[in-house]
Amino acid sequence: MFEILTTDQMYDADRKTIDGGIPGDVLMENAGRTVFEEIIRHWSPRSVSVLCGPGNNGGDGFVIARLLRDEGWSVRLGLLGEIEHLGGDAAFHAKQWDGATERLSPALVVGADLIVDCIFGAGLARDITGDVADLVASVNDSISVVVSVDVPSGVDGNSGCIMGCAIKADLTVTFCRAKPGHYLLPGRQLCGELAIRDIGISDQVVSEIRPTCWRNDPVLWRAGIRWPGLDGHKYHRGHLLAFGGTMMTGATRLVARAARRSGVGLLTIVSDASVLPVYAADAPGTMTASISGLEALLNDCRHNAFVVGPGYGVGDSTRSLVLQLLHLCRSTVLDADALTSFSDDPSTLCFAVQGPTVVTPHEGEFTRLFPDIDGDKLARARAAAKRSGATVLIKGADTVIAAPDGRAAISAVDAPWLATAGSGDVLAGVIAGLMAQGMEMFDAACMGVWLHGRSGTDIGPGLIAEDIPDHLPVILRELWLASRK
Ligand SMILES: NC(=O)C1=CN([C@@H]2O[C@H](COP(=O)(O)OP(=O)(O)OC[C@H]3O[C@@H](n4cnc5c(N)ncnc54)[C@H](O)[C@@H]3O)[C@@H](O)[C@H]2O)[C@@H](O)CC1
Ligand SMILES: [K+]
């Protein structure tokens, strides 16, 4: 259930299932029934208004209305357009509804304790305007509980963008698999609780569609974790060089602590000799080295991974260092100042990426590096990964990770506590630590985001960046124990 399907892939899955022998009206009956089941599981009988649009999303509404009425609930139904204009499965199910069919209007909102939103689903093709926009506003202004079918009407299933205006739901029930718009902002916030329900589309059909996007979950990457063996040696667990600046030393101290907690064998902070005592005093297990000895450090291929950017400073020397590191084709994580240093000349950075590289921009850094790439977050991350050859991770509440080969994952963790100074430094450190241990770059980026998100939800209010590295052993132990089952 971790695959994320585009609306076109979902239509394809429907078609393949219908071709495989399950009629479309049965799929629609199943879809309506799952929503009905979710409603009666969540709420006791109350007055319901079902708002139906002109397509199959509206068809689901006729099923839901019938099942709720059969259960003894008080149900009103409103339809956008004429009942004679409904086609196919929606027309079939409209005939099964023996209650009144009202005109879709804000009058249906008055007195309804629960509103079922079946106005538009996957077929939303343009902005919602006019009377329907007024209706959406009345629903959102009401105190009624709102259940959206498939997606909150007005949310684009592929991008999570709002098309004109959108319903704000308390519960969204979608079918088979989630769509990107369920996890990308602002769509995610409008969905409320998300229930993904089976309607008879088999896993086989889903795999035939070859999904390339997933919700970020351990299922995706747990097989790629390099747990140490009994005969292991610290050098088998990598030696990460973390490049530290001279002013904001806290950033690289966080990077270092996070990388070490992620399991890296050795970690050396490389910086100007004048600040090495600051770094050395931070933790006895962290080593330090002067940047003046860089050539020798880089000639030692046991130093198999690099992380640079947090607190490093923007400028020519950062650019030169990054290019020198990328030239070696070892595992490299570039964050913050390492990215901003290429704002004037992003193509040089893209050209230099040859080896396993993860870049971790926030939205501002992303726009500076890829000003011509637009679209939703998923599309932008994919385009940037394809262009640069790096795994691109765009941070935020809906972090997206995209590999150059088109694979992508979206984080679905609600952890607003992570929006705090130093949190991004920790993320860069964890990913670099995992890559130093030999994890593939996309897996390492996904696992880093997941560990970071889980720490955010586990620690919760009051979280400071320093807490995250020290919480990692708890979560890693869980993953390790699960791997031994
Ligand atoms: N066999 C299937 O394809 C199944 C489909 N299902 C449901 O069907 C939905 C998709 O159905 P459809 O493809 O018919 O699409 P929708 O029901 O989402 O909407 C399509 C209709 O809305 C109109 N429309 C689009 N944007 C509009 C706007 N901004 N203002 C006014 N009218 C607008 C279109 O012209 C079209 O008439 C899914 O979201 C899901 O709820 C489920 O019943 C499961 C099975
Ligand atoms: K809907």
From TrEMBL:
One of its GO terms (biological process) is metabolite repair. Its cofactor is Mg(2+); K(+). Binds 1 potassium ion per subunit. AMP binds at residues 395-399, 424. Keywords: ATP-binding, Isomerase, Lyase, Metal-binding, Multifunctional enzyme, NAD, NADP, Nucleotide-binding, Potassium. Pfam families: Carb_kinase, YjeF_N. K(+) binds at residues 57, 117, 153. Its EC number is 4.2.1.136, 5.1.99.6. It catalyses: (6S)-NADPHX + ADP = AMP + phosphate + NADPH + H(+); (6R)-NADPHX = (6S)-NADPHX; (6R)-NADHX = (6S)-NADHX; (6S)-NADHX + ADP = AMP + phosphate + NADH + H(+). SUPFAM superfamilies: Ribokinase-like, YjeF N-terminal domain-like. Residues 217-479 form the YjeF C-terminal domain. Residues 10-207 form the YjeF N-terminal domain. GO terms for molecular function: ADP-dependent NAD(P)H-hydrate dehydratase activity; ATP binding; metal ion binding; NAD(P)HX epimerase activity. The keyword Cytoplasm does not apply. In the C-terminal section; belongs to the NnrD/CARKD family. NCBIfam families: yjeF_cterm, yjeF_nterm. Homotetramer. Catalyzes the dehydration of the S-form of NAD(P)HX at the expense of ADP, which is converted to AMP. Together with NAD(P)HX epimerase, which catalyzes the epimerization of the S- and R-forms, the enzyme allows the repair of both epimers of NAD(P)HX, a damaged form of NAD(P)H that is a result of enzymatic or heat-dependent hydration. Bifunctional enzyme that catalyzes the epimerization of the S- and R-forms of NAD(P)HX and the dehydration of the S-form of NAD(P)HX at the expense of ADP, which is converted to AMP. This allows the repair of both epimers of NAD(P)HX, a damaged form of NAD(P)H that is a result of enzymatic or heat-dependent hydration. This is Bifunctional NAD(P)H-hydrate repair enzyme. The gene is nnrD.
